[in-house]
Structure formats: C-alpha cells, structure tokens
Amino acid sequence: MSLRSLVAVTAALAALAAALPARAGLCAAKSSPRTAALVELYTSEGCSSCPPADHWLSSLRQAGQTRGEVVPLALHVGYWDYIGWKDPYARPEFAVRQRRIAALQHSSFVYTPQVVLQGRDFRGWGSGAFERAVAEINARPAKAAISLSLEPLRDGALKVEVAARVSEPARREAAALYLVAYQSRLVSRVDAGENQGRTLEHDFVVRDWVGPIEFGVDGRLRQVRRLSLPSGAAAGNSGAAAFVQDRASGEVLQALRLPACPG
Hints:
By secondary structure, the chain is of the alpha+beta class. It contains four helices and 14 strands. It has one domain (24-259).
C-alpha cells in the first residue's frame, strides 16, 4: 500500500470513529445547510376521517422521506373526545398551537385531519403537490442551524442536548426553538366513538413538548433537557425533534429529527 493510500485509509477511519457514538445509546445529528420541511399532522382517534392521514404520515418513513428532507410530527388533539372516545395521546397544548397557527393565517377555523407544512395549512398532502412543495422547501438555504444529541435514560425518558443558531440578526427576536419527544409504532384498539371497533396505528406521535425557548441576543442557545416518554417506551421506536420557528409569521426556519439509538 502506498503512503498516499495509507493516509487516505487512516483519515477515513478517523472520520468514521468520530461519527460513531461515544458510548452505547448516545447519538447525535446536525441539520443540513438546506431547509428541512416540518410536517405537523393534527389528528384524533375520535375522528373517522383521520386514519388515512395517520397512515399517510407513517408512509413518509417507508418512502425514505424522513432522512433530513422531512420532519414529521403527529399532534393529537382532544376536542373530539366528547363524541365518546378519549384520545390517549391528546394534549391541550396541541389544540392551542393549532388555533395559534390558524390565527396567524387570519382564520378561526381548525379541523382534523389537518396538515401544516412549514407553519402553514397544506391541503394537498395526499397528492403530488406535497412532494413538489417539499422539494421547493428543501432547495432553500436554511435560516437556522440545529444540533441534537440524545441518550435514553433508565426510566424511558430521553436526555437531550440541543444547540441552535439563527444567522440573521433581524430574525432573532421573533425566533424560538421547540423541542419534542415522539413515539412510533403505537397501536390502539378503539372501543367507542366514530372509530369504534377499529385498530389504529400511529407513528411520530408527540409525547412531550418544550417551548418556545427564546434565543440570546447573539442568536444562539444551548440547553440540556429531559424529555418524558411513557414507561416502557422502546428506544428503537422513540426519538427527539427540534425546530426553529418565527413566532410572528409562523415560518419554520429549520427542523431536525433524531431517532434514539438503542442502548
């Protein structure tokens, strides 16, 4: 082997070693220079028209679209619980967020299933319009940078370290970071309401939510947080996501998803 080849191999091995987790269960990721598309699905197990949208969100993983291009999140709302089935994944703050997004678009109307793409209502989610919209978003230079590292804790929670930066000074005051823990491969047997008798499957379900977290005057932040997951949650079906959003306009400046690494 020539000296040049030996140097190249050594450098490659060093790069690989640097990319590997420092210890079992610890993993990390950094956002791309291009903008990832944040997809928020507002859904409910009490809504008979929601299962097709839940299935569509799951299909993004199967299509390989969640490797940096798309960050999908399912936010379950509880305002259909009165019909007869209480959604076990619903949280009041998700309905509050949905109404806030509607208000930013000068609307008082919320509905399920609703897909919000990059902070705006998007009704073409089941068509080629979605792929075209994502491609357009991905082509834009990112207006924020995010890095995440996470480690599963013994009680099933996640220890998450996040660092973020907003490059443009004019955007720093309105920008905020949001941090979530999610679970996939969840299964529910619904015994009442519009979906009575159905078995529903869910992916990317938000189980814990932190934010808004404000940036410093220099447009930077770094924090360590504990994100809660239900007892017994499998690391292989869980993870964390973070995104930076302009609270005044609703525009998402960057997003990042990181699946948990099994211990």
